[in-house]
Amino acid sequence: MAAMECNRWSRQIYLQIISYLLISSAIHSDAEPQVSTQIPAIWSSTHYHHYNELKETLQKLAQDFSSLANVYSVGRTVERRDLFVIHITSNVTDVKPMFKYVANMHGNEAVGRELLLQLSHYLLHNYGKDERVTKLVDSVDIHLMPSANPDGFEAATEGDCYGTKTPSGRENGNGVDLNRDFPDQFNVTDMNNMTAGRQPETLSLMTWIVSNPFVLSANLHGGAVVASYPFDDSKFHKITGQKSASQDDKVFQHLAHVYANSHATMHKGNVCQDDDFKEGITNGAEWYDVPGGMQDFNYVFSNCFEITLELSCCKYPKAENLSVEWENNKEALLLFMEQVHIGIKGRVVDSETKRGIEQAFIQVNGIDHNVTTTKTGHYWRLLLPGIYTVVFSSYGYLPVTKLVVVKKGIVEEVNVELHPIALPHAPDVAVTTSVIPVTFVTPNSAKLSSTTVAPSSEFEFKHHHYDDLVAILKNVTKKCPEITRLYSIGQTVENRELYVLEMTDNPGIHEPGEPEFKYIGNMHGNEVVGRELLLYLVQYLCNQYKIDPHIKDLLDNTRIHIMPSMNPDGYEIAREGDFDGFGGRENANGVDLNRNFPDQFHSTKENAILQPETRAVITWILSEPFVLSANLHGGSLVANYPFDDNAENIDRYSKSPDDVVFRQLATVYSQNHPTMHLGQPCGGQGKLNESFPGGITNGAAWYSVAGGMQDWNYLHSNCFELTLEVGCRKYPYAQDLPKYWEDNKKPLIAYIEQVHSGVHGFVLDKNGNGIRNASIHVVGIDHDIVSANFGDYWRLLAPGNYVIVASSHGYSRSTRQVVVPDGTRGIQVNFTLDNEYFDWLQTEDFGILDNIDDRYLNNIELHNSLLKLKNENPTLVQSMANVGHDGLQTFNFIIVSSEV
Question: Which processes are annotated in GO (biological process) (predicted)?
């Protein structure tokens, strides 16, 4: 599965550029520390520590606690002061999550500077004495930077609460605000040149951040009392404030709440004049827009989650207030550090060498933000309690998907082995170390990169008979073995294989949480455009997988099955240039396959006996948890949706329960096609001369078709299917095929993306195990779907508000209110069903599931249940009923005896 490309690009490119350009700013230790013997053993917070005293204090702590602490510098300021960090932990060789506090980024916001000095003293002096402190130092790699702007601090004035003095000391020695100086994700210039014009302090901090696998951090400021979380700005840069949520918004809100709720006053939200922060937290951009901030840089360009803590109303209060500030913040400082242990952690190793894999991607489905492993293969991924599908991947390895249950207060350890991808043609593989910039992409992007449009020369635009078709499919599997699998679902009347090409990042298996999609072409043998389009599509996806991040993301997050021809026998007798005829339409038995499926309304001569092709497709549909599908036809230009017929078998609209969803799906294809949406007639006779508003139509409203495949999909599986008429001519000349491809390429991709719309998630029991065949019911829509083997489900829905009920026999029901957003990005909703009834059955009622029901039986159901009990146990049970004078049963009863 894919790790999100924006993070992959930013991390890899940035590391290369920064590591090369900032060698002079690399982390270094102070060569000759000047140790003072005047630092008291018991900390005093009666004054502020200026640069020299701060330096001496840190070095004295490192000297006195040499087994726990050391001091290093990450670089120097404009005025050549060191940016000191005190590193505190026990057993430095142990693998632990890295944590950092950074303070005094604005030189005149001084409280955080003193708090980190006091925190250092507190941790070291209480190690081995206080159980909590000892556990923290033993389990976390702690890095504390008291001042990121020592130059500014030296220019600031104690007692200047609002920064009104000149100079205020807020900026660095060059007069630059360091918390506006970091590369910003919404600034294109920043993305193209990460280092140009940055301040030395900023460059040093950037290098430190991306060179170390920090997990959690906070940036300590002053001038308000609030916990601010990403993002700090938005692409609109609205000065008055507009929320800009990160992909991990819930995690960040939790982290902010942890600090605010543990702070003596922050949780009130109105500590300072004009403060109005609900529960003491705020989204940064919602407060005010801050481009170039450090907390966003941490999240976007590294593994680190950082929030900004505003700790005091007065930026630089009198020193006499420092003891109060320590008491206000001590518990919050400790509890926030402990949050480094939420979510999941583990190690990703090579299955053969057992060595850790560096820069492996840890991607959580539904959260568009990955983290990567350390040099030794270790990782930490902050998550809230819940059920997650996590994908572990790395270049050159097959990905692994895990279903993970994260519990409150416990970090879940998930260790993974990745199997190397065999490269049988290694001599032909060119290895390059160059990095290709890519763009931000998501599974719901409906755009094709303008730079990756396949040129006409990429495909051989001709009609491909059976042997040619097989050759193309096999060639694609050889060219892209890591994302393809060729298989047959059965044989035709004339023993031709019904080939399907599977395309995904981990072919051959259903990955939990990943939806399944299918295209079927050439069901009518003489309607050939769909057959050719699907052959072009598989080649296009193969060719673009490593070039176009959009295509890669689509394949990494979707299991796609493509059957170019369902009727290869009919195709072989059809003829090029037969624009609207019938030769080759049926299979070799002369049966129209799109009239051969069981029908909800009518049993006809054409669907009385299932053909081999039909039977194979039915078995296939029921064997995989397909979510969305399309059946490609020709002879018209329209997107056709269920139902295809009605009880009267007349040409009249036949609405399915999901009519709104089907209309939306049809519109997606039509609107992405250059002419289909115009709804113009093809210019033939009868049905071919009809126009379709918006380029879509209800099947039965066009003409009633009993035994169609699209209706069978909807009624007998989870799969929603459309019938796409992709060209006015059934068997056009080969010279016209490039135009058909150009017209349909974009809608073919856009339609696949719809598989991610609506609601998806897992149905689990209270132990976190997936529940198979659980029912997903949307209130007001009379069509349920069921969960797949891992408890995963996908329910296509149009944007709107819904009430969804998950249920399974032997479990309690779970009901959720859900808002489905616009666009193709769906929303993940997990259900946990209580199986207390099942547990009771196992111990008290012999495990008989039939004894559980969630409703009362009516009289007929009660009578039938008693008859069933009698029939299943004829030697023990006799069912009887009293009948009144009017012929009505007055009551039912059974006799249970060994002498029945």
Answer: peptide metabolic process; protein processing
- Give catalytic status of residue 725 as yes or no: yes
List C-alpha distances in Å: 707 to 499, 600, 604, 614: 23, 8, 8, 11
* Local structure of 181: helix, strand or coil: coil
DSSP SS3 for 410: coil
Q: Is the Cα torsion angle 549, 368, 230, 208 positive or negative in sign?
A: negative
Q: Both tokens of residue 585?
A: 């339409």
**Chain Cα centroid distance, residue 878:** 57
Backbone φ and ψ of 73, nearest 5° = -120, 140
Tokens 């709440």 belong to which residue? 257
DSSP code, position 356: B
For 51, residues 6+ apart whose C-beta sits below 8 A from its C-beta are 81, 147, 150, 153, 154
pLDDT at 332 over 90: yes
Cβ–Cβ < 8 Å for 797, 783:
no
**DSSP label at residue 495:** -
- The string of pLDDT tens digits covering residues 661-670 is 999 999 999 9
Which of the residue ranges 358-362, 517-521, 726-730, 872-876 has the most confident prediction, judged by mean pLDDT? 517-521
Q: Following CA atoms 783, 789, 791, 792 in sequence, which dihedral angle do they give, to the nearest 10 degrees?
A: -70
Q: Are 345 and 411 in contact (CB under 8 A)?
A: yes
Q: Is 354 left (phi over 0), alpha (psi -120 to 50) or beta?
A: left
Q: Are 707 and 604 in contact (CB under 8 A)?
A: yes
Q: What angle do CA 280, 215, 388 make, to 5 degrees?
A: 85
769 burial class (0-12, 13-18, 19+ CB within 10 angstroms)? middle
Q: Is the peptide bond before 579 cis (omega within 30 degrees of 0)?
A: no
Q: Are 369 and 249 in contact (CB under 8 A)?
A: no
User: Please, are residues 154 and 107 in contact by the beta-carbon 8 Å criterion?
Assistant: yes
The arithmetic mean of pLDDT across residues 104-113, rounded, is: 97
Residues 170, 174, 179: CA angle, nearest 5 degrees: 45
Q: How many residues are given for the chain?
A: 900
SS3 at position 367: coil
Residue found by looking up tokens 């500590």 in the block:
271
User: What are 759-789's pLDDT values in tens digits?
Assistant: 999 999 887 888 999 999 999 999 999 999 8
Q: What is the pLDDT of residues 267-323, one digit of tens each?
A: 999 999 888 999 999 999 999 888 999 999 999 999 999 999 999 999 999 999 999
Residue 106 backbone dihedrals phi, psi, to 5 degrees: -90, 115
To the nearest 5 percent, what fractions of the chain are helix, strand and coil? 35, 20, 45
DSSP code of residue 42:
S
Token pair, residue 126, equals 């209480």
Single out the catalytic residue among 171, 306, 310, 721: 310
Secondary structure of residue 870 in the 3-state scheme = helix
Based on C-alpha coordinates, what's the Rg of the chain? 33
The question of whether 753 is a catalytic residue gets the answer no
Residues in CB range of 424: below 8 A, 6 or more apart:
none
* List 325, 511, 532, 725, catalytic entry: 725
**Closest to 279 in 3D by CA, of 252, 259, 306, 305:** 259
Q: How far is CA 788 from CA 623, 626, 758, in A?
A: 10, 10, 17
